[in-house]
């Protein structure tokens, strides 16, 4: 998904919910680890629910396919506190286009999300060299905008822990979880 481009990079980081900040940073660290390990970043989402992080990869032949898969997984993740979508993209900077590991995400009910990222270069031996700190990039779409900000298992109309969206173990369930449970390959 390296053709994802986000403009309007700035250094002013706005206040955001702690869970959202945590998941954005965790996703960036995982993306960096993938590149440092010599792997391409397959776009992935991370969800925060019940103090745990849940990761799902979104492979695809096009950026649009990856993005649609991520949106589908996140927009129905009732009970999650926040999410991040991480991918290898580009930032349009004053110095031109720069490679970057980007994480964008949001929280239930918020009108907008946020994007942060690590700019990087590839050294002479093919290894990535990252900026010392992530940069705030700007506002991003929020796939959770239509969800209510409700704790897991307490959504309106829920019958308890076994309600749709939250499993008996308190884990967030998405449509792809249900597909895996019946043996459908979602990759």
Alpha-carbon distance between the two ends:
16 Å
What is the number of E strands? 8
Q: What is the approximate shape?
A: globular
Order of helices and strands: EHEEHEEEEEH
- The percentage helix is 10-25%
Biggest pleated-sheet summary:
8 strands, mixed
- Nearest-angstrom radius of gyration? 17 Å
Q: How many DSSP H or I helices?
A: 3
Look at the helices and sheets and give the structural class: alpha+beta
- What percentage of amino acids are in beta strands? 25-35%
What's the average pLDDT? Answer: 79
List the uncertain runs: 1-10, 152-187
List keywords for this structure.
single chain, 187 residues, alpha+beta, 3 helices, disordered N terminus, disordered C terminus
Structure, described:
The chain is α+β, with helices and mostly antiparallel strands and about 190 residues long. The chain has 3 helices and 8 strands. Strands 1, 2, 3, 4, 5, 6, 7 and 8 form an 8-stranded mixed sheet that branches. A hairpin with a 2-residue loop joins strand 4 and strand 5. The longest helix has 19 residues. The chain is globular and about 50 Å long. It starts with a strand and ends in a 6-residue tail after the last helix. The N terminus and C terminus are likely disordered.
């Amino acid at each position: 998904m390296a053709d994802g481009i986000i403009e309007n990079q700035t250094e002013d980081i706005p206040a955001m919910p702690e869970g959202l900040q945590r998941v954005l940073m965790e996703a960036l660290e995982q993306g960096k680890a993938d590149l440092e390990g010599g792997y391409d970043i397959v776009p992935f989402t991370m969800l925060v629910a019940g103090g745990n992080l849940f990761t799902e990869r979104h492979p695809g032949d096009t950026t649009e396919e990856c993005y649609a898969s991520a949106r589908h997984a996140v927009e129905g993740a009732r009970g999650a506190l926040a999410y991040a979508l991480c991918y290898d993209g580009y930032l349009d900077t004053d110095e031109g286009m720069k490679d970057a590991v980007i994480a964008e995400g949001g929280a239930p009910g918020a009108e907008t999300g946020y994007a942060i990222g690590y700019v990087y270069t590839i050294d002479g031996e093919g290894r990535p060299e990252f900026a010392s700190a992530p940069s705030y990039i700007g506002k991003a779409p929020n796939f959770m905008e239509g969800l209510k900000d409700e704790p897991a298992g307490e959504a309106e109309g829920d019958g308890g822990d076994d309600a749709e969206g939250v499993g008996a173990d308190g884990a967030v369930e998405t449509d792809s979880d249900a597909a895996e449970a019946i043996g459908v390959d979602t990759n």
